[in-house]
Design goal:
By secondary structure, this protein is mainly alpha-helical. 50% of the residues lie in helices and 3% in strands. It has 17 helices and six strands. Strands 1-2 form a two-stranded parallel sheet. It is flat, with a radius of gyration of 37 Å. The relative contact order is 0.05.
Length: 361
């Protein structure tokens, strides 16, 4: 066997290498020990964790007891969100039910609960749930009697599309029901049939059943004969009082038409009324027969209008106003309105709506 001999220099190198390895090992071991000591939870942290675990156990126990004690009795006007969730109702619907109640709604029957947007009918019709409906307390006692006893109502035949608030008060209807009728015809659409009362939010089914026999909506032929007596008016000139004289336009819509006209700088087409959310296709057909549009509307010079003036127009977003100003400041002035279509934010639909309001002087 051949003996392996190292020179003195090689032996010294080996010794130095071994010493370095030992020092590295000791350094790493000391660092790991330091980390362990540093990350070790304190006694306070351990006690806090134990208290948190105990709290969760107690809470789970209370929830389990509540679920076991749930007997299926629900008063929609008093029940809390937690009990609704325990009964199987979705969280978003439970929140909506309570939010409506906090805003003044009062549930008198299952049909009232059906008016809650997105209501789960399978939950509502469960046989193991017993809904309890109590009359309102205090100031609402009279309105509850009105809904359940005919003696307080003084109903007479009326047209819900034309009757005044004073006349409704004279029939001793609850204030919330009166407001519901007025809001329905002014903000939604005219009443087309007596059973539309079921769709009025503030009127429950029992009250609607009492009122419906007295509802006498004018026949279409009679309404058309009345319509023919109304002269067409300019949508750019009429004030709210003149607009309210047109069938299908109430106070709310008349105000909306005038306010939107001021923002636009005037209408160039009757079709722009469709921009108002309260004007659906049915209402538009009704009111457009008595309106016309002239060319009395304000235009904007896109080479001179300020960023604020541009942005204040309903059809121009903040980014588009900024781009128009930057184009004419950094590039050049617009030579024709059609150049606006070259801006990325302007598509064909927007340009066709916006172009009549723009000019270059």
């Amino acid at each position: 066997m051949t003996n392996i001999l190292f020179s003195p220099a090689e032996r010294r190198g080996i010794i130095v290498f071994l010493i370095i390895c030992m020092l590295l090992y000791l350094s790493v071991d000391a660092y790991l020990s330091h980390l362990q000591l540093k990350n070790k939870p304190s006694n306070e942290q351990i006690e806090a964790f134990r208290a948190l675990v105990l709290e969760h156990k107690v809470r789970d126990s209370l929830h389990a007891t509540a679920r076991n004690n749930f007997k299926g009795l629900l008063d929609p006007n008093e029940v809390g969100q937690e009990q609704l969730l325990q009964s199987g109702l979705r969280k978003d619907i439970a929140e909506r039910l309570i939010r409506f109640r906090e805003k003044g709604a009062y549930y008198n029957s299952r049909s009232d609960l059906e008016k809650v947007y997105g209501m789960d009918t399978s939950w509502l019709n469960r046989k193991d749930l017993n809904f309890v409906f109590h009359p309102r307390k205090g100031e609402f006692d009279d309105s509850y009697k009105v809904r359940n006893q005919n003696r307080s109502l003084k109903l007479t035949p009326f047209d819900p599309n034309t009757i005044s608030k004073g006349a409704l008060l004279g029939m001793h209807l609850p204030g919330s029901a009166i407001q519901g009728i007025l809001s329905f015809r002014e903000k939604f659409r005219p009443f087309e049939k007596a059973t539309d009362l079921y769709a009025v939010y503030n009127i429950d089914s029992s009250l609607a059943e009492q009122i419906i026999p007295f509802v006498k909506i004018k026949e279409l032929a009679e309404l058309n004969s009345l319509d023919s007596l109304i002269v067409s008016v300019s949508i750019n000139q009429a004030d709210t009082n003149l607009l309210k004289g047109i069938k299908g336009i109430g106070s709310y819509l008349a105000k909306s038409i005038v306010e939107y006209r001021q923002k636009l700088g005037g209408y160039y087409s009757l079709e722009q009324l469709r921009d108002l959310f309260v004007v659906d296709s049915s209402r538009y057909q009704t009111i457009s027969k008595h309106l016309y549009c002239d060319d009395d509307f304000r235009k904007l010079d896109i080479n001179k209008a300020s960023e604020e003036e541009l942005y204040n127009h309903p059809y121009i977003s903040y980014k588009l106003a900024r781009n128009i100003v930057e184009f004419r400041e950094r590039m050049r002035l617009f030579e024709k309105v059609e150049e606006l279509a070259n801006i990325e934010l302007v598509d064909g639909v927007l340009f066709s709506k916006l172009a009549p309001y723009l000019e270059i002087k």
